[in-house]
Each structure stands twice: as C-alpha cells, then as structure tokens.
Amino acid sequence: MAFNHLRAGVHDALTPLSVTPVTHSVPMAKNHRSDRPQAHAASRPSPGTVLDRLASVPSRAARITHTEHLPPRAGRHAVWPDRIRSEVIAAVQACGIEHPWAHQALAAEHALDGDSVVVATGTASGKSLAYLLPVLSTLLDGAEAPNGRGTTALYLAPTKALAADQCRSVKELSQSLGTSVRPAVYDGDTPFEEREWIRQYANYVLTNPDMLHRGILPSHPRWSSFLKSLRYVVIDECHTYRGVFGSHVAQVLRRLRRLCARYGSSPVFLLASATAAEPAVAARRLTGLPVVEVADDASPRGELVFALWEPPLTELQGEKGAPVRRTATAETADLLTDLTVQGVRSVAFVRSRRGAELISVIAQERLAEVDRSLARRVAAYRGGYLPEERRALERALHSGELLGLAATTALELGVDVSGLDAVVIAGYPGTRASLWQQAGRAGRSGQGALAVLVARDDPLDTFLVHHPEALFDQPVESTVLDPDNPYVLAPHLCAAAAELPLTEEDLDLFGPACADVLPQLEAAKLLRRRTKAWHWTRRERAADLTDIRGAGGRPVQVVEAGTGRLLGTVDAGAAHSTVHEGAVHLHQGRTYLVRALDLEDSVALVEQADPPYSTVARDTTAISVLETDTEIPWGAGRLCYGSVEVTNQVVSYLRRRLITGEVLGETKLDLPPRTLRTRAVWWTVTEDQLDEARITPEILGGSLHAAEHASIGMLPLFATCDRWDIGGVSVPLHPDTLLPTVFVYDGHPGGAGFAERAFHTARAWLTATREAIASCECDSGCPSCIQSPKCGNGNDPLHKRGAVRLLTALLRGAPEEKPAGDAEEKPEGAPAGDPERDG
C-alpha cells in the first residue's frame, strides 16, 4: 500500500510544473494511390467483380458513396549488398527470393554503414527482410569472433503476437545457418526456466517495450553480456509508438542507450513502418538519434479497389428523436456473410472484442441458413485468445480452411496473413495510418484486393465517406509524441537512477525538461543527490512507478465476485468510465457486469452475465486556464494553446442495445470528481461575431456545444488520436476568457500532443468540422454530425444551424496561412461558467 502512495508522489511532485510544449513531425505528401498492390491471380475474381456482386443486392448500390481504384505497380530489383554474407543470401534465396527490392538493399547498406535507418514502405513490401539482412549477417560475423557470445540484436514489437510471428519467420529463414543465429522470444509469457538460457545464449532476442521497461533494463547486470555485444535494435511498426505510449517508449529507449553506453556498445537502430508521415523526423523523436529515411517503395503491388460504404437510415430514433443509421456492426456482418458465400477470403476489422465476436456469430448464423458447412468457415480473432489459438486461426485463414475472420486490431500489425482477397473495416479506425494498415492485409501475395470502409453513425465517418479526398489525397498523420512531458519523464528518471546513478552527463540524453523535473523529484524525496549523481534510495522498484501503456496511478483490479479470481486490471484514469457500478465489462470473450467499484482499495467486483446491451459512461467537466503559451488573432476572436486544469466527474451511464445502438435507459452514478493538468487548444468569439452569425443568447449554448462535439469528432483526421483520447468543454461565458469559448484538450496528464496538433491545423480542422455539420442530411442534429456518445448532458442543448453559422463567422477571420507547424457548453438558461463536458 505504501508504494501506491509513492507512485502518486511522482504525479504530486509535478503538480506545480509549467508543462513543456509538445513537438511533432510534419506530414509528408505521400500519394497512397501509387502504393497499393499488383495484378490478382487469374483463378480469383477481380476486386471490381467482387464489389459489383456485393452491390447487386437490392438497395445496396446506393450505399457505396465512392470507389477508388489504386493501380498496380511493377517492382524494381537490386543486387545483393556485397557485405551481406553468402550464407544469408543463400537462405533467403531458398525461400524463393532471388533478388532484393531496391529499398531492401538500400536499407541494408545504411545499417551496415552504422547508420540508424527507418524503412517506411507499403504493407507487404518486405520491410522485415530489409532489417534481417544486416542483422543475420552481423550475427554470423559475431559467431566467428573469439570472444564467445559474439554479436547480439534486440527486436521490439508493440504486441506479443507480432514478436512471436517474427521469431517463427527468423527460425525458418535461419534453419540453414545452424546455431550461429539463436532467436528467442522474451516476454511475460516466457517460462521462467527458459529465461536464464535466453539471457546467456540467445543472440537475437524478440520482446516488447513493456518487457524492456519492467524486466530487462532493471535487471541489466544479468543482461550485461547481451548489452555489451548489442549491435542492432529493431523497432517494428514504429508508427504505433505515438501519444503518451510513444512518449514512454521514447524514454525507455533512452534508458536502453544509456545502459549500452555503460557496457561499451552503441547499437544501430533499425525502424520499420508501412504508414508513417515524415518517418525520419518521427524516428529521430522516438530514438533521440539521427535516422536515415528509406521511403521509396520498390516492391510490386496489385490493384486495390477501395469502396466507401454508408449504412442506410433506419426507422429507429435516437436521443431527441434524431435519426439513426444501421450499425456498422450489422452491415459488416452482412458483407462478411456475402463474401464468404462468394468464396472470397476476407477479414473484417472491428474496433472492439465484443464487436468481433458479434460479427462472427451473426455471419455464422446467416451462413448456416445457406449451407451449414459454410458456418464453420468463419471465426473471430482478437486479443485474449491463447497464442496457439491465434496461430491456428492464422494458419486456417492462410490455407483457405477459413474464408472469413472478424478481427480486432490484434491482426492489424505485421502478422503475415497473405492470400486474402478482401478487407472490410467496420468504422474508421481513428487514423489514416491504421486504415492503410488494415486495408493492406489483403493482396499481400501480389494479387488484386478489395477494401471496404463501412461508416459508423459518427461525424468523422460520415464526413469521410462523403469526402474521399480526405482519405485518398492526404498523407498519413504526423506521429505525435512528447518525451519531454514531465509526467512521462519523471518516472523514467527515477527508473534510470535506480538502474545506474543519474549524472549531469546523462541529462542531455533525457532532454531539456530534466532541469525542471529533477528538483521536483528531489523535493518529493523520490531521488537523492549525493556528490555528482542522483540516486534512487527506495526499496520499491522504480520501474513500477508507471505503466507505459497507461496514464499512471494505481490500476484497478477486476475481480470475479463469486470466486475471488483476478481477471485483469484497468488503468486508473479509465476506471471511473469503464468499471463503474453497472458497467458491462468484457474479458477474454466473456461478459461481466460490475457490481461494485471500491475506489479506496482499487477493486472492481464483477459477475458473469449476458446483458443484451452495452454501457457508455457520461461525465461533466469544468476547465480553467493555467497558462496561455500561444495565441493568434482570428479576426475579432482568438485561437489559443496552453496549459489547463480539467475537473471531471462521471455522473451516469447509458445502456444501449447491442445491434441497433438504441438507448434503453440512463442510470445516475455517484463518483468523486478528478482533476487533470493537461494541454488544450481553445477559441473565442466576440459579441460582434455572434451578431454577424445571428447567434442569439437563446441558441448560443447549443451552437457552441454542437461545434465542440463535431470538432472533437473530426480531430482524429488531423492528429493520431481517437476521440476517446481527447475531451472538450464549451462555455457561453468562460471566467478566464470572459468570452464564449470552446476548449479541446488532451485526456492525459501533461498532454499527449493532440491539442497542439489541433492548434497547428486549426483552419483545416475547423473547416472540415463546419463542412461535416453542414453536409449532414438530418434536420436538427444526429450522431452523424453533432451528437456525441460521451456527452455528459444528454446531447442537450444542441443547435445545428447555429453551429454552422458560428464556425463560418470564426473561420472568416482565420489567417490566410496556417500557423507555424502544422466542450461543451452549459445548458440553455444555466448560469455562465457552468460547463459540461464531452469527448
């Protein structure tokens, strides 16, 4: 229990800090149309034919709002780099690869020259081989060295599944290389009896950032031989390291570099991503090192037909009588069913585990009505399955035994499922980067492929299916991360000091924010300075101060009430909204109801159940400005960016019917408020602008509220975030600005870079927001434009036309050029300064 207070002490120690602004990379103008795959196999129907068959069902053709044809492209070979050992070349050729693609050879040459390099080429372009060529060749060189262990390499993947998949590939490729290459997976699933062998003998260790943070770095004396010989660090799918998670990983990598230097090594970093904007900038921010960019994709690609699909309106009514569209889940289940009947090998990507299971069950039931044998050829794939279960599903899909799979993003990353004909994406996945990752799962053997994006009833999805240029004519988003965030930096300075006393010379490595953070940690008695170094003097493990995938704080344990069995944990920051009393909680395919949430002991008691609904928490939020870093005149109004304090309270939850999304009821909750110091972008309007927009006091609150909801829904198009990563507040008269104000803020302590990205793209972001509201076919507002699933005030008041006029007046005063770089309101009639919140 004492350590929980210690963990909180890191946060408390930083409370007075002025947060350092976030930096970000600038998006690269990349034309995705030229990056998609080559001609389909003759035995398979063309993607256009498959789409025509899907659209031939009555009334379906009208649901296709746009079709994009991305043409095939021929490949460009190169010669094998002369420094790659002949045994490695022979092993690769034995796998059927006669010559490397030009980008593979170029990346290998940079690596052998000692340059850190990022390979940012399309899905299935052979990025793995680009880094394996120098790694395997160097491991062979090291095996001949007289010093025993020889050279070592470390591979980092964001998921266990990807590391396991890569390990199998390396073992297959290196079979002919004998014992010179000894790959091994080292993660939380690795049996303890194998771990000592890996530390002593493995020379290619595959793991994840979490294990590096909690397991390897704190135990570095036991890894000294490995670290001393470390030549390469491979960081796969590096675009996933963004936001707060990416900021944590950036500091973990700096801790790794510091320990390597202590043991006399200086590893070269090899990064790979199919979807990264200005990849060298993002890679340099992540690693802290200069990185060479290889982004000219020389691999062949087949045709990709990409359809945008909008489900039809139903006769159901949502909040305030708003029209409701058919759910993306139901629509995707229909498409997966029809693709399976056609014999088209397909994956449907779904955002939630429950959604994946639901789509597979619906498809199986409908297929059984056609042919009982077809029902067995569709399954679900998601996190929570045992590794052997996932591998069996991958093999069955690859072989054709399975024709359809409903999958979460567990299958999005580089796991090889080549041979797919089609991908259906149930709802925009949040970023263009993820969209292209998922679409790239099909056509991985060079054949043509079909991708279908099915829109959810959501402002961003609705905007995208009617504005295809926002997907097909824009680069992927910038990778936003901020290693200097003091709430991220502080626990890693503690962890670094616990690994080795922290010296003045180390501070440049960890960044300029150290100068402000270290005195705070000293004052909190978390670090102690002796002579020229800072020491960790506690008994507890400093690495346990933070969960690199969470927002900090003591995790809430989810316990089965009847058995006392620990099912898992939930991040402290998410507990109020996800495991409140009455919440539906999913765990490994089973559904539970939360019976009680004990905040003092951080325990949620659950019982297994099968309710016909899901739950969505609602909350209210007040916000105050701590410091304005930057402000720009927008006509009479202003656009600002800075630090804020957000006070949030979960007040109720909605029960929504699973298939239709229909609201079944709302239940009040009594949970304490929480405060968050973070970063925000906000804009103000003046009385003159309100007069110009014909915004009367009666509709001001609803106009601001609607603009806030829609702007939050649209921000993921401009920053690598999900709408659940951000929040907003709108107030007709805010006490700090003394004007009508709309705030959008990062939902993480110290900020995650999303609000700053919004500030730098404000003109485009708010223009798209206005367009999304104005083009929606509803009369007075619906989930496709201004209603929010998180609104703490029941989506009331909202004024759709007022929001359009308000944004028009605001944008009229926006600067002609973008600035350098790239809420909710109160209810009508409520007193000023009584805001509510959304996200």
UniProtKB/TrEMBL annotation:
Domain (Helicase ATP-binding): residue spans on this chain: 108-294
Region (Disordered): 27-50, 811-839
Keyword GTP-binding attributed: no
Keyword Plastid in record: no
GO molecular function list: helicase activity
CDD domains in the cross-refs: DEXHc_Hrq1-like, SF2_C_Hrq
Top-level taxon of the source organism: Bacteria
A Pfam family this chain is assigned to: WHD_HRQ1
Stretches with biased composition (Basic and acidic residues): 814-839
Keyword annotations: ATP-binding, Helicase, Hydrolase, Nucleotide-binding
Gene3D superfamilies: P-loop containing nucleotide triphosphate hydrolases (3.40.50.300)
Record domain Helicase C-terminal: where: 335-487
Protein name in UniProt: DEAD/DEAH box helicase
Species, as recorded: Streptomyces cinerochromogenes
